[in-house]
Amino acid sequence: MRVLLLGGTGEARALAARLHPDVDVISSLAGRVPDPALPVGAVRIGGFGGVAGLRQWLRDEHIGVVVDATHPFAATITAHAAQACRELGLPYLVLARPAWDPRDAIVVASDTAAAEAVDRQGFSRVFLTTGRSGTAAFADSGAWFLIRAVTPPDVKALPRRHHLLLSRGPYHYDGENALLREHRIDALVTKNSGGQMTRAKLDAAAALDIPVVMVARPPLPPGVTTVGTVEEAVTWLHSSDGHS
């Protein structure tokens, strides 16, 4: 069994480590983050060229199973992988970490809707943690933003009033609490990424009674098989379904 592991997440690295060296795994990274944390085993970096390119690559590399452990908001590669596997009759699994409970958050469907919520609610000092691709929607906002991202966003996509904080998790409660207080934050904007690596900001916001605007996850393609943990993915791969 040769497995393509669509990765870039901590779960993908953990799964690659669990399978190596007993399973022939190729981990694929999008290549958007400089100096990424690499999984063990074989790694390819870069896109596939849409559904057609991915379908041909899967054929050329004699892939028997695809596990998609990309970020929950990497909707394009997930849609492409689901379609390519369906057309080729390959088993396809999505490993998606459980979403956060939004609790009292203002739940919206997109970055644009989040920006509209910020303006509608009259928030003035916003902690924006939607990633470098999520800043453009806030470019015309009158609020001030503390923007945290792994890599710098396009300058043209930045709000007029902001402070850019380049950082990579994991983050911890004490640090997040201090950050919110230091910058007098009155709203947190985040994507529902799930997991523990960046959850502390939600706990700190709750402790300080800071409202949260949360972008909901994009829906998965219909009919795909999903699991929420690395252990479940390993079990699936070693089951008859994973080998079919």
Automatic annotation (TrEMBL):
Q: Which UniProt keywords apply?
A: Cobalamin biosynthesis, Oxidoreductase
One Pfam family of this chain: CbiJ
Q: What is the superkingdom listed in this entry's lineage?
A: Bacteria
Cross-referenced InterPro entries: Precorrin-6x_reduct
Q: Which PROSITE patterns match?
A: COBK_CBIJ (PS51014)
Q: Which residues form the signal peptide?
A: none
Q: Which GO terms describe its biological process?
A: cobalamin biosynthetic process
Tell me the route in metabolism or biology where this protein functions.
Answer: Cofactor biosynthesis; adenosylcobalamin biosynthesis
**Molecular functions per Gene Ontology:** precorrin-6A reductase activity
This one is known as Cobalt-precorrin-6A reductase
Q: What is the lineage of its organism?
A: Bacteria, Bacillati, Actinomycetota, Actinomycetes, Mycobacteriales
